[in-house]
Amino acid sequence: MRRAEIDGGFTGMFDAVLFDRDNTLIREVPRISDPDLVVPMPGVRAALDLLRESGLRIGVVSHQSAVGFGFVTRAQAEAVDARIEQLLGPFDTWQTCWHTPADGCACRKPAPGLITAAARDLGISPHRCVMVGDLGTDLQAAAAAGATGLLVPTGQTCVAEAAAAPHRAPSLLAAAEWILARRQLLRPGPAGADEPGNVLAVRAGSAGDVLLTGPALRALAARAHSVSLLTGPPGAPAGRLLPGVTRVLEWGIPWAERDPAPVDRSAVDGLIDTVRCWQIDEAVIFTSSAQSPLPTALLLRLAGVGRISAICDDYPGALLDVRHRAPDDLPEAHRALSLAAAAGYPLPGGDDGRLRTVLPASGTRTGRVVVHPGASASARGLPRKVAVEIVRELARSGREVLVTGGPAETELTAEVAGDVAGDLGGQTDLATLGRLLAGSACLVVGNTGPAQLAAAVGTPVVSMFAPTVPFARWGPHGVPHVRLGDPDAPCRDTRALTCAQPGHPCLGEIDPAEVVAAVELLARRSP
Hints:
This protein has 527 residues and is an alpha/beta fold. It folds into three domains: 182 residues, Rossmann fold; 145 residues, Glycogen Phosphorylase B (Rossmann fold, 3-Layer(aba) Sandwich); 155 residues, Rossmann fold. Helix content is 35%, strand content 15%. The protein has a six-stranded parallel beta sheet with strand order 8-7-6-9-10-11, sandwiched between helices. Helix 6 links the parallel strand 4 and strand 5. The longest helix is centred in the N-terminal third of the chain and has 15 residues. The N terminus is likely disordered.
């Protein structure tokens, strides 16, 4: 595929920005019915114009329960909206919930109905939208729709909502600049050879790490003659599920794996010989922020690889031809995509940037819920007692529940399943688990690989997320989800593998009824 074909298909991370109305676009006036009382928030017109000029579509999603309660007529509310457009310019879609909280509708935030309706009206997927608001319900609705939430705090924003926000901006103008900067990251950089070649992608880490690199590997495959993947034993099964990957070279990279084996000279020599034998023309090294690409780059130079790209903050000398930078809060899938684009491999037009596997398409989803209590790092798994209670509460709600886990977790899954759920502990490899998730309504899981596998097959996730790593980077990517747990617990950003806090407080105090409510929220259809 020629470079000109690739350039024409540029799409950013986002296609549309959706705004809450009151206290985001205009100053809140309780039960506002008079258009003359409309006062725009500071900087809002400049922010909107900046987004419009960039080609982004913009919309409003708002609930106006004063109409449902009878304090304001719908005609009065629509006159207020008309005044907003007069002051702030046109919007591409308006989605309003007129119900009261007691109505139990599917559109009132934190339900995702307004966001999914706005995306449908704009002809795009919700995961291509940013939802900007000042309250936790705005961001919860965004997550439940699979969109990105961006908090612009005001005097109405509580401390807990700010702590839980995956992304924050101090003002609307800063929010617009944040959005445009991330779109810019996916613009293509200069390509290497004019003719397609053999590209080696490198991604050490877990199955979840490799799955998150999937969209970037598709971007490489759209132009390259072949794409090979170098990864360690934990990530190899995921690599074999990714579309666009021609072959997987399994090698425990000693300077990048969590539990590395000693550096073995003969193994290093063998890897160099393999890379030479495969006639690799170019390499793209995908890493997490805690990993340096430079030792791998040195090894690949010794193997004769001519062009190497990586994200790197250290001085690379002559080891890197493309040295890319990425913001710390960029989701891992977008981080990988931005590197691929910088290396001259943007996603082709028509690719939506979602995670994806080569598993067969699932049939009709059932109402079944899968609970995966374990994790390779115990600090990120579900506390055993909490998992047991969650499964029982889900079963009492009428849900079919299956409990999954690896071969070393059979004792855990048996206890969690008890006599109310199916126990599949030790019976599902990655591909089998993926097929199971593809036919299920929801996955309840900690921040571990199966969450990304669920995203890869399009299954919503109730994410019991220990804040040892940033949720903005490692949360479920591109699918509807609900985050539960204390986002500001003492373990926040420690990268701890084992919880040092008695009772595992970030997840240990979750009410099982919250999980049932989250499952029902994700399983509901939007209006």
